[in-house]
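Contributing: when you submit paired examples, paste them exactly as shown. First protein:
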Amino acid sequence: MNTAPNASITDRVAPVNVGAPVTAVHFLKDTAVFVLGEDELMFVAAAGSEARVKAHDGGIMSSASNGTQIITGGDDGKVVLTGADREPQTIATDAKKRWIDQVAIAPNGATAWSVGKSATAREAKGAEKCVELASSIGGIAFAPKGYRLALTQYNGVAMWFPNTAAAPEFLHWKGSHLGVVFSDDGKFLITTMQDAMLHGWRLADNKHMRMSGYAGKVRSLSWTADGDLATSGADQLIIWPFQGKDGPMGKAPAMMAPHKARVTTVAAHPKQSVILAGYADGLVLMLRIKDGAEILVRAGDDQPIAALGWSSRGDRFAFATEEGSAGIVMI
């Protein structure tokens, strides 16, 4: 990979004609799967062949992937699993056809989804458990080990073990909590908030971590190969240090690649200290974290970057804008 400052790999982008707004991109091995705002998933194989698969009758509200399957939730009230065979399987339908707000999938195939204040967890073998919270659920995440879920809501996060009869443990912090992620080692839990900030907990003792200073709402988080947390929400890439036992407490974040537009989407390489940053004006940069070297992937054109994703081997990645301009790069 060329690491010279101001280098460009724009000539290595294989354009993809999605032709519709994109909300996310996931990889199933070497195949990029673009999640469209309406109805479909678009599969683009390494050889360049394309296929569109109808997963929902209407808008796709949320998606997640474990590298083997993609789970999607729609405004048709359906929860759908789609694998490399490109055969969508409806695993649940809300009895009242309410929107499926959030979805999550674990490495072993366990799944979860939310409708309003209710969340359902489904084991890989099919057994389901439900829980009702006091307010609407903003985000769902599986812990990296064990059958445990984090469910965000107003004023905190519910930590739920679906296979026990115990009520969820509640981590309190005032405000509206939206997205949620566990660190890869399971030691920290981080939420995005309605305000322009992040909040976190060290789970060993529930010590609070407040991460602020953003210009806007943080909508995208990605853990780097070194265990730090890259984030959107500012006019430069913000990376919080998590390698010590105290995480970012008492430490300043690293800041990279300042630009005239805000970072909208981030995606860290699965194995190397490299990260992709997409901006509100359509710019995509590949950045080497250790020295800040920048490689241009896509020049800005006022189409906000909506999705970035790496293959599990880290040998290819994909990007897409809100309007449906997309591409795949092999490195």
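Second protein:
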Amino acid sequence: MEKTVINEVFDLLKAIKAVDSESEFSRDWLGRSECYLRTLRFKGGEPSVATIAICASKLHHYGNQLVQHDRHREIGRRFLSLSQRCHAQINAKSKAIWLGV
């Protein structure tokens, strides 16, 4: 599996102790089974557009809440930045589909 924004989200969430494992991240942040990331890595796949969208939405939601608090403002900004990057990846993948690339 190529390094994607989803991997960066996982790394950040693990670093701030919001998740303990890929299994927890797959279930709670991607809305997928506990083995989702492990399976992608094993098969050399990439996350689906729907999976990236779920993650982007959750990052956006929590990012907006966190930026309202001085203590958590910077992490909120990072969440919002990652959400924007997820949306950019969604747009790129979607464009590739309708262009037939």
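If you have annotations for the second protein, write them as plain sentences, like these:
The chain is about 70% helix and 0% strand.
The first helix runs from residue 5 to 15.
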